[in-house]
Design goal:
The protein is an alpha+beta fold. It has a domain of about 270 residues: Beta-galactosidase, Chain A, domain 5 (Distorted Sandwich), CATH 2.70.98. The protein is built from 5 helices and 23 strands. Strands 8-9-10-11-20-15-14-13-18 form a 9-stranded antiparallel sheet. It has an 8-stranded antiparallel sheet with strand order 2-3-5-6-12-19-16-17, with no helix packed on it. A two-stranded parallel sheet has the order 1-21. Strand 9 and strand 10 form a beta hairpin. The longest helix is centred in the last third of the chain and has 16 residues. The protein is globular and about 60 Å long. The two termini are about 35 Å apart.
C-alpha cells in the first residue's frame, strides 16, 4: 500500500518505524511537487550523501534491498579498530584499495581489485598509495546510484563497474591494452570494524571458476558467543580464462599455484587484454556452504547479463522506495528523505539461502535448517555473457 506523507508531519511517523536513522525534516513552504506512485524516486537517492567517518556497513551502493551481496569500493577497509573510525568507504578519500562484498555489522571479507603492470600483493596506504595496489580516482568520474557503482581507476586506466542480485555480486572491468592485466582476490586480510581474520582459503576448480571460505571472529562473538566464528563461503566465475594463476601470502607471490589458505593471502589472475576489453565476473555468497553459493549463482545470474542485473537492481529499489510518497518541501528535502530511507533499508540483509538452508544456533550448536539439495540443483552452468 502506498503512503503519502506531508512534509508538515516532519517525518515523525516514519522515524517511529525505523529507529536510528536521522532524517532532516522538509521545510514548511510547498515549492516542490508531491511524488506520485509512478515517479522514479531512485533519482532522489544520493549514496554519497553521508559516508564521511561512516560506520562499516553504511556504504555499499551496488546492492539490493535487504540483499546479502553488498558491493562497495573500499578506501580504508583494512586494519581498522573500533566503529568510530572510518571503515570501508570515506567520501573524503582519493584512492581505492579494492571492491568488497560482505558488509554487515562486524563482518567483512573478499576484496577484489583489478590492476595492470607489476604484480603487487599489498594495498598500500591512503598516504602512500604507490606503496601498494590501490589506485587514485577522481570524484567527477565516480557514479553511485541505487544498485550500481562505477569509477575510473586512474593508475591503471581501468573502468570498474559493480552491481548485484540478492546473493551475487557482478563485476565488469574494462581494461586497456596490456599483456599484464590482473584481477586480485585478496581474501585473507582483516576488513571491517572489530573483526579478526582466522582463516581464508580458495582454490581453482576449473579454468574460470574458484570457490572458498573466509572465517572471521568478530568482537561481538568474542564477548557474547566466544566459541563461535563466522564462516562466509563464496563461489566465483570469470568470463575469460586467465593466462596465469598465482597465489600470494605475506612472504610473496607464487606463480602457478591455484589454491591458497591461512591469512594475508589470496589468488591473482593475469590476462592479456586488448584496448577496452571487458572481463566480467560473478561472485556468489553464502553463510552455509560453497554448494549453496553455486546454487545462488545458478538461480540468480545464469541467464542475465550485467546490464540486466543493473536494471533489475534499480527496479527493486524503486519498488521499495516508492511505497512512500512525500509532498511539500524542496527537491533537496526529497533527496534527504529518500537517501535516508535508502540507508535504512540498506542496513539490513538476508542470511537464509535460496535452497532453504539457514544457519541457526540450536542449544549452543550451529546447525542447518533446510531441505536436502539434489545433485541436479547443484549443477554449475558455465557463464555465457548475454548480448
Amino acid at each position: 500500500m502506498k503512503t503519502l506523507l506531508p512534509c508538515t508531519l516532519k517525518l515523525k511517523v516514519f522515524i517511529l518505524l525505523i529507529a536510528g536513522v536521522n532524517f532532516v525534516s522538509c521545510t514548511n513552504h510547498e515549492n516542490a511537487e508531491a511524488t506520485h506512485p509512478d515517479e522514479d524516486v531512485t533519482r532522489y537517492v544520493n549514496p554519497n550523501l553521508g559516508p564521511i567517518d561512516g560506520k562499516w556497513f553504511f556504504y555499499s551502493p551496488a546492492a539490493l534491498p535487504f540483499g546479502m551481496a553488498k558491493l562497495s569500493p573500499y578506501t580504508n577497509s583494512l586494519g581498522n579498530v573500533g566503529s568510530s573510525l572510518p571503515a570501508g568507504y570515506d567520501d573524503t578519500h582519493t584512492s581505492i584499495e579494492g571492491f568488497g562484498h560482505m558488509h554487515e555489522f562486524q563482518i567483512g571479507g573478499l576484496l577484489i581489485m583489478p590492476t595492470t603492470g607489476k604484480i603487487v600483493t599489498s594495498p598500500g596506504s591512503l598516504k602512500i598509495p604507490d606503496a601498494g595496489y590501490r589506485s587514485r580516482f577522481e570524484k567527477r568520474e565516480e557514479i553511485a546510484t541505487t544498485g550500481y557503482y562505477a569509477v575510473k581507476l586512474k593508475d591503471y586506466d581501468i573502468e570498474a563497474e559493480l552491481t548485484a542480485t540478492k546473493n551475487v555480486g557482478l563485476h565488469r572491468y574494462t581494461f586497456p591494452a596490456s599483456s599484464d592485466s590482473h584481477i586480485l582476490f585478496d581474501i585473507g586480510r582483516k576488513q571491517g570494524e572489530r573483526n579478526s581474520m582466522i582463516d581464508a582459503s580458495a582454490k581453482m576448480i576449473s579454468d574460470t571458476e574458484l570457490e572458498g571460505c573466509i572465517e572471521t571472529y568478530p568482537d561481538y562473538n568474542q564477548l557474547h558467543d566466544p566459541e563461535k566464528h563466522v564462516k562466509m563461503f563464496f563461489a566465483a566465475r570469470l568470463s575469460k580464462a586467465p593466462k596465469e594463476v598465482g597465489s600470494f601470502n605475506k612472504t610473496g607471490y607464487t606463480s602457478g599455484n591455484t589454491q591458497t589458505d591461512k591469512t594475508e593471502n589470496g589468488l591473482i589472475f593475469t590476462f592479456s587484454t586488448v584496448k577496452n576489453e571487458e572481463i566480467e565476473m560473478q561472485v556468489s555468497l553464502s553463510f552455509t556452504s560453497t554448494e549453496s553459493a553455486w546454487l545462488n549463482m545458478q538461480k540468480e545470474t545464469a541467464h542475465i547479463n550485467f546490464d540486466q542485473a543493473r536494471e533489475n537492481a534499480r527496479a527493486a529499489w524503486q519498488n521499495v522506495l516508492s511505497r512512500v510518497q512525500v509532498s511539500g518541501g524542496t527537491k533537496e528535502d526529497k533527496v534527504k528523505f529518500y537517501t535516508g530511507l535508502y540507508h535504512a533499508v540498506l542496513g539490513r540483509g538476508i542470511k537464509d539461502q535460496l535452497n532453504g538452508q539457514n544457519l541457526i544456533n540450536y542449544k549452543g550448536t550451529m546447525q542447518f535448517s533446510s531441505e536436502e539439495m539434489t545433485s541436479s540443483e547443484l549443477k554449475k552452468e558455465k557463464m555465457v555473457p548475454q548480448t
